[in-house]
Structure formats: C-alpha cells, structure tokens
Design goal:
Elements lengths: L3 E5 L5 H12 L3 E7 L23 E2 L2 H4 L5 E4 L3 H14 L2 E4 L6 H10 L4 E4 L5 H16 L5 E8 L9 H13 L4 H4 E2 L14 E7 L5 E8 L4 E8 L3 H14 L5 E3 L1 H5 L6
Parallel strand pairs: 1-2, 1-4, 2-3, 4-5, 5-6, 6-12, 7-9, 8-9
Antiparallel strand pairs: 7-10, 10-11
C-alpha cells in the first residue's frame, strides 16, 4: 500500500517540527508538503533540517504548491491561516486535520461549509488520552448532575495566545451538553471583586499561563463532603502528533464531512 502523503502547516514551529518527525518516523506516511507564513526565515529550507536529516521537501509560503502532492494537510496554526489553508484543500480535494484553536462562531461555520466538500477532522486536542477524558466527563456529568459545582482549570506555557484553551472549552461543552445546557449560557470566565454566591448552574473556568507547561487540564466536581477531579496532564507534544496521524489516516478514505477525535477513536460522545 502506498504511503499516505501528508503536508504540515506551521512547519518551522514547535508543533510543526513534532509533526514532521512523526510523519517521517511512521512507515505508512510520507511528508509531501511543508507550509509556513510569508517572511519566515525557514522558507526554502528542507522541512526536516532541524533534525539533521533531509526530507526532500522545501518549506514554502505558496499554499497551493505546498499541497500539490498531498492527500491530507495537518494544521496546528492560527485561525486565519487555517481557513486559508482549508480553502486551498477544498480547491485541491485534499483532506484536513485541524488542531488550531480560537475559532469564532462565524469561522466555525466556514469550516463546516468546507466540510461539505472535503473531509475534515477538527479537534482542539488530538491526544488520545484527552479524548478518552472527554468520554469520562460525559459519564461523570450525567451522574453528578445535581449537588455538584463544576470548575475547569487549565495551565499552559507562556507563549499560548488564547484562553481558555480549546481543550478546556471542549471539556466544558461536553459537560454542559451532558447536563442539557448550552455552554454559552452557563460559562463563567472571570471572577473579580464581590461576585456574590456561586450560581450552581454555572461552569467556571480558570486559566494559568507560565513557563513551558505543555498542557494540564482538571475538571472539578465539588459536592458537599467530597470532590471528584478528572485530570489530564501532557508532558510532551508527541501525543498530539501521534493523534494527528491517526486522524490523517481516518480522513484519507473519506469524501467529505466534519469529524472529531471521538469519531477517529470510535468513542464519539452521546448526542
């Protein structure tokens, strides 16, 4: 069977390097394109040069050129860049695996429109462990629907630009849906001053930024006389890269549709 041809966006970044290494190490995938922003000092360099190896793929800012031989794009960049890349994937009939976070509702609608024509896996966290935690949270929230206050605490490195993290929001959405609520109606993102008593129907969020924390997430169910905490801690981005490869293999034989990691892993949440 021919190797799956994968292009990587954000090729000179930390996650880009991790993805390129993962694609090169797998025996069923091959790097077919590498994208970066115009003006990047990495443009024109071999995409695997950082590792002391040669991939034969040069980093380019020309999206169509970077996707010309790719079946699937993996993108962990920024919303505006990702949307431009998806438009190019649609033009070329390539699938996409999107780990970018921070999309607005209109941008999500744009992604859904692209998914009518190409297969897309969109997930705020590609880690297999995190997606198993999402399944556990669905079960926990249904069982702890009364008498428990829910708080979500996340911590990331100092360079992360959005808060709360996409993973924390995904956790909140799973919990809210399990409780029959809309997260936009019950989320509390800021507390300062005299806030009054806690509304038991809310889901609180707290964000920590510092150092080189890869990603820690805890969902706390605080009841009377007990606390249940469901926690996931990442020590390496390797888990995200391996999950992204699983997603790329998943979309490779799909014609269109918008999927999540639950679909990839066969543990999709209940409606």
């Amino acid at each position: 069977m021919a190797a799956l041809r994968i292009a990587v966006a954000g090729a000179s970044g930390r996650m880009g390097h991790m993805l390129i290494e993962a694609v090169g190490a797998a025996d069923d995938t091959v790097l077919a394109g590498a994208l970066d922003v115009a003006g990047s000092p990495a443009l024109g360099q071999d995409a695997a040069a950082f590792s002391g190896k040669a991939s034969g793929v040069l980093i380019t800012a020309d999206v169509d050129a970077g996707l010309s031989d790719a079946q699937v794009l993996i993108d962990f960049t920024r919303p505006e860049g990702t949307l431009a890349h998806l438009a190019a994937c649609r033009r070329r009939g390539a699938g996409a695996v999107i780990g970018t976070t921070g999309f607005s509702d209109p941008q999500r609608a744009e992604i859904a429109e692209h998914a009518r024509h190409i297969p897309i896996v969109l997930a705020p966290n590609m880690s297999v462990g995190v997606n198993l935690v999402l399944k556990l949270l669905d079960t926990a929230a249904r069982a702890l629907s009364e008498g428990y206050d829910i708080e979500i605490v996340e911590a990331h490195h100092r360079h992360k630009v959005d808060a709360p993290s996409g993973t924390a929001l995904a956790m909140g959405e799973v919990v809210a849906r399990a409780l029959g609520r809309e997260l936009k109606d019950c989320a509390v993102y800021d507390r300062q001053g005299v806030t009054g008593e806690r509304d038991p129907s809310t889901i609180g969020f707290s964000s920590i930024r510092g150092g080189d924390i890869v990603g820690d997430h805890t969902v706390l169910f605080a009841g009377t006389g007990e606390r249940i905490e469901i926690t996931h801690k990442s020590s390496s981005r390797v888990t995200y890269a391996q999950g992204a490869l699983r997603a790329a293999r998943f979309v490779a034989d799909k014609r269109s549709g918008l999927y999540g990691m639950g679909d990839v892993l066969g543990i999709a949440q209940q409606a």
